[in-house]
Design goal:
50% helix; alpha/beta; binds magnesium ion; Rossmann fold; 2 domains; globular; single chain; 294 residues; 5-stranded parallel sheet
C-alpha cells in the first residue's frame, strides 16, 4: 500500500492515481448539509431573518446550482453576501448585510483557508465580523455532526473503490474539515480503500492533488472524480483526467464509471474524445450567474 509521508507526499505503490471528492461525489450529502446546516446557520448567525427566503435561495444557488458548487465555505460566504447585496432593496435593508472586505482580505493572505487559520488570525487581530464568521463555521460543523448521520455512499461507489483497490493509489480530495471527512468515511467502512484523506486544512484541491502526485505518475495515469467545476479545475492543474459525477444524475454517473469508464482508464482508453464529451456535458450544467440576474 502507498504511504502518505507529510511534505514528501504520496509514495506510489501503483502506476495509477485516483483523486476522489467526498461531498456530492461519494456521499449524497450536499443537499442535507447545505439546506439543513449551512443555510440555516447563515441566516441565524448573520441575522438575516428579514430576508430569510432570498438568503436561503442565494446560499443554495452558490453552493448547489452554480459553477461555485463545492467551493470552500468561506469563499461561499463571501460570494453569497456579494450576490445578496446586489439582490436586496438597499434602501430597505441598508445595514443588514456586513462588509465582506475583511473576509476577502483574510482569504487573500492565507496559504491555507480553514477554520483553524481563521482562529489563528483572530487570536492576533480581533475583528467583530471575522469572529462572527468563525462562530458560524463552528455552528455549521456542530450542526453537520448532529444532522448528517448514516447518509450512505451512492450505489456502486463502494464497488468502484473495490475495483480501484490494487490498481491505483486513491486519495480523498475535499474542502470539508478533515475531522468530518474521517468520521464520514469511517462510518461506512471506506477508509481502508484510500491512502489518505485531505480536508480544507490541506489547502485547495489543486494544492492537495499536487502534494499527492508530485509528477510521480505518467501522463494518462491520473484521474480525478468529482461533482463540481472546482474538481475539474484541480484535475487539469496537475494534468489529470477528469470523470464527472453529474449533480442530480449521480446514480447514472456511478453506473457509467463502474461499468465502463474505470475500465477504460486502467486500459489507457479514457483520454481523448471519451473524456472530452463527458467534460463538455458537465461544463455546461452549472451556470456562473444566478437566474435572477440573467
Ligand atoms: Mg463535491
Amino acid at each position: 500500500m502507498a504511504r502518505f509521508s507529510g511534505e514528501r507526499g504520496l509514495i506510489p505503490a501503483h502506476e495509477f492515481f485516483v483523486g476522489i471528492d467526498s461531498d456530492g461525489c461519494v456521499f449524497n450529502t450536499m443537499e442535507v448539509k447545505q439546506k439543513q446546516c449551512f443555510a440555516p446557520c447563515f441566516i441565524k448567525h448573520f441575522n438575516l431573518h428579514q430576508i430569510a427566503s432570498i438568503a436561503r435561495e442565494t446560499w443554495e444557488f452558490v453552493n448547489l446550482y452554480a459553477s461555485s458548487r463545492g467551493c470552500s465555505r468561506f469563499e461561499a460566504l463571501s460570494r453569497t453576501i456579494a450576490l445578496l447585496k446586489r439582490r436586496i432593496d438597499r434602501s430597505l435593508y441598508s445595514d443588514l448585510l456586513p462588509d465582506i472586505e475583511p473576509l476577502r482580505q483574510w482569504m487573500g493572505k492565507q496559504k491555507i483557508v480553514s477554520a483553524a487559520s481563521l482562529k489563528a488570525c483572530l487570536d492576533m487581530y480581533p475583528d467583530i465580523f471575522l469572529q462572527r464568521v468563525y462562530s458560524w463555521s463552528l455552528a455549521v460543523d456542530a450542526c453537520i455532526s448532529r444532522t448528517v448521520r448514516f447518509v450512505p455512499p451512492f450505489a456502486l461507489a463502494i464497488e468502484s473503490l473495490e475495483f480501484m483497490r490494487g490498481r491505483a493509489d486513491v486519495v480523498v480530495v475535499s474542502q470539508t474539515p478533515h475531522e468530518a471527512l474521517v468520521r464520514e468515511w469511517d462510518t461506512h467502512g471506506l477508509t481502508g480503500y484510500v491512502q489518505s484523506i485531505a480536508g480544507q486544512e490541506g489547502g485547495t484541491k489543486s494544492e492537495q492533488l499536487y502534494k499527492a502526485v508530485r509528477d510521480r505518475y505518467p501522463e494518462g495515469h491520473m484521474l480525478m472524480i468529482g461533482d463540481a467545476p472546482g474538481d475539474l479545475e484541480a484535475a487539469k492543474s496537475i494534468g489529470a483526467l477528469f470523470f464527472p459525477i453529474i449533480p442530480g444524475k449521480e446514480t447514472q454517473s456511478w453506473e457509467l464509471l463502474y461499468h465502463e469508464a474505470l475500465g477504460r482508464f486502467f486500459s489507457g482508453c479514457y483520454a481523448g474524445t471519451y473524456e472530452q464529451e463527458l467534460v463538455q456535458a458537465f461544463s455546461t450544467l452549472l451556470p456562473d450567474n444566478p437566474p435572477w440576474e440573467v
